[in-house]
Amino acid sequence: MNILTLAREALIQRLSTITVDNGYRTHAGGNVRGGWLNEVIKLPDVGFPLIVVQKAKGLAPIAGPHAIKVLSGFNVIGAVDAGLDAYESAIEDLELDLIRCLMTTAGRLPDWLPRGVPMVAIGAPETFPPADGSKAAMVLIPVYLHTIIQGHLP
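Predicted structure:
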């Protein structure tokens, strides 16, 4: 199977572990979806809290001997429907869960990523209050999966 697909699916699977039973503050892992937020949010059965894994711009690839390291980009977007008065604590709980779920230990390969994806890096989170008639507040975390693609030998 395609290593890029395996990496994306592993990211979605990892985010699905965010449950109170696993020591997190929310149960957002029960509602993880791939796709585009603007489409997912319109679905009739969307529910909250919600996590969307949306393809995003990656970082510049790094060339190596007979291989290249591709830094595939994703926006991991968490959303809560807590209204205008109480969204800050709710979105902070989800932000904390996302960061804790995605953080790695320095010098150790993440055991949840497939072979060939030795590292995950996260960017600075950005939060968005409810807007445009929606009660959903959101947090966006850029995620980069460092994926090694081997050269094709004839």
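Summary: The two ends are 19 Å apart (CA to CA).
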